[in-house]
Amino acid sequence: MARMNLVLLALALFAAVATATNTKHCSTGKAQDSNMVQIGDCKAPPCKLKKNTDVTIQYKFTPKEKVESLKVAVKASMMFGIKVPFVGVDGSQICDKIYRADNGQKVACPLAKDVEYIYKDSFPIKSYYPSLSTTVYWTLKNSYKTVSCFQVAANIA
Q1: Which residues belong to any copy of the MD-2-related lipid-recognition domain (predicted)?
Q2: I need a labelling partner for 143 at 20 to 30 A (CA). Which of 28, 62, 63, 89 fits?
Q3: Residue 128, class by beta-carbon neighbours within 10 Å (0-12 exposed, 13-18 middle, 19+ buried)?
């Protein structure tokens, strides 16, 4: 039984890596490790975000210090570089959506320093969102400090 669980875990990790989304670090704009983020079935930006659907996300991160609480900040870049929040996602508490990367076990805050975790969630693409090409900025925050972040080009339609 344990051997079967190990095989299933290995297959799940392989599937996650094989379908990862290419993203950039939010502040530097440099390409990130290619197996950090998976947004729906998007492999290469721009990711297609279809209105009236829910899009899944898996985001691998490692806190550099102990994390007491965790919120997500999700913004979309509009004209003139103005960033507006994704309604229904931005500001959400996400401590109940965190898993250990090594064994898939669900955990809760506080999160330990230097341990790799996976944030798993889905987010709505509301019908009233404007149809546009944008950059989405996704940030995990402990109070007001950034724990981890990425940016990705997307088309909302």
Answers
A1: 23-154
A2: 28
A3: exposed
Give dist(CA 84, CA 137) in Å, integer. 10
For the stretch 79-134, pLDDT in tens is: 888 999 988 889 999 999 999 999 999 999 999 999 999 999 999 999 998 899 99
Measured distance CA(139)–CA(142) in Å, rounded: 10
Tokens of 90: 């931005």
Q: Which residues contact 157 (CB under 8 A, 6 or more apart)?
A: 48, 49, 50, 51, 131
- 3-class secondary-structure state, position 150: strand
**Distance (Å, whole) CA 87 – CA 95:** 19
What letter does residue 30 receive in the DSSP assignment? P
Q: 29 exposed, middle or buried (CB, 10 Å; 0-12, 13-18, 19+)?
A: exposed
